[in-house]
Amino acid sequence: MAFELKQNLKLSQQLIMTPQLQQAIKLLQLSRLELVETVNQEMEENPLLEEVTSDEDPETESKIEPQEGDQTVQEEAKTLDRTGELTGEGDGREEFDWDNYLEDYGPMGVTYDRAEGTAPAWDNLLVGKSSLTDHLMWQLRLSPLNDDEKRVGEQIIGNLDQNGYLVATLEEVAAQERVETDFVEGVLKKVQELDPPGIAARDLRECLLIQARTLGDVRTLVEKIIVGHLKDLEIKNYEQIARKLKTPLDDVLAAILIITNMDPKPGSVYNEERVQSIVPDVYVIRSGDDYKIVLNDDGLPRLRISNFYREVMSGMNAGEKAENGRRYIKERVQSATWLIKSIQQRQKTIYRVSESIVRHQRDFFDRGIGFLRPLILRDIADDVEMHESTISRVVTNKYMHTPRGIFELKYFFGSSIHRSGGEDVASKSVQEEIRKIISEENSRKPFSDQEIVELLQKSSGISIARRTVAKYREVMGVLPSSRRKKYF
């Protein structure tokens, strides 16, 4: 067998994800809060990155006037156009030109004007809220209990979940405190007398029974319904409850009204969870007959590369240590430049996608949710000449403030529903029609899903199946007709 050496020339294409392109993709899909955290982390790790304060750059700190959106958008477009599309080219080995950086990559940030007196006032006040455990422990210490009872009571309180229910068994508490189970049960009854009513229950039935202790004449009937007829109460089969208890329906309805006003989660009022307010990434401002797009950069650090290290590099003498120092500074400068370019490209992409959404959903902004058009990712991708995956990253965890409220960018995308005698409508518009029909129904005789189908066809020409109505109703958190029925 003979061996032979040959040379072949082969041309092929490869997709290489450079570090710069990877960083741009990562930043694009981050939410606003995650972006701020990422920028702050980079500033801690990279000593060449620093934040520009308003005192250092007073010219860029202008006032915001929502009515003057034209000038704002023009200034924003100029800032964004200073960088081209990210291609990921370059290996970072080229010499760094400080002069070109200072011209092309100055302080990063897209700002917009805010008129004096138009911005909301923020009160720098912190209000401490007592937790459920603190509230119960305060009452326990004031109760006439001996040391052993208080010790077991503390163990019971420590085993309550966020809704106020006891998640540990009496045997587990007894073993933990080395006491008898009967002793723990006696302490539990005393803990259940604390505020809020219904606390330290082991299930829903016990929680409601604890709250029923304070009732007067109707206590007996209320307790009978809670003990033996919770299932019928859940499905609103009140006639069945009246027949089983051999009690007039009016008396049963009066007792049920009391039960429905009880709190099934007594500890939730002291829940330590805080509601996270939404900070929009984009503002849509009406200007005459048109809409202007303004990016919200409030709270985002405005970045630049520190000139201090330029002076340090120029003052370094020859030698191995000086060369290592220059190499480190160049690497940090390259990393900082990539970050600034990636953030600018992210803002530019969000702007273009938001502008396209407003253009496609103009009827929604003019006339309301009932005129939301069907829209898919490819429609926006073709409009802005980007890939669908890029659009998907842009609309993830991003919010838009509009004259009609704050919406996630994903909200404007949805499938189409056929409508006879007109254009197709978006699925969210159909959901809104269903919500409107249900809100106007007779609560004593609510519409069934089939009746809603017929009403949609008659009023709006929307043709959908009954199971589609059921699916949309579940998405909106609306109960079926049997559960929506009200007797009082």
Q: How helix-rich are the residues, as a percent range?
A: 40-55%
Computed over alpha carbons, the radius of gyration is 32 Å
Instruction: Output the strand order for the largest sheet.
Output: 3-2-5-6
The description of the largest β-sheet is: 4 strands, mixed
Shape: extended
Structural class: alpha+beta
Descriptors:
Arc Repressor Mutant, subunit A; 488 residues; 4-stranded mixed beta sheet
Topology of helices and strands:
Blueprint: H1 19-28, H2 32-45, E1 49-51, H3 69-80, H4 98-104, H5 132-142, H6 147-158, H7 170-177, H8 181-191, H9 204-212, H10 219-228, H11 230-234, H12 238-245, H13 249-260, E2 282-287, E3 290-295, E4 303-305, H14 308-314, H15 320-360, H16 362-367, H17 377-384, H18 388-395, E5 399-402, E6 405-408, E7 416-417, E8 425-426, H19 427-439, H20 449-460, H21 466-475, H22 481-484
Parallel strand pairs: 2-5
Antiparallel strand pairs: 1-4, 2-3, 5-6, 7-8
Helix pairs in contact: 1-15, 5-6, 6-7, 6-8, 7-8, 9-10, 10-13, 15-17, 17-18, 20-21
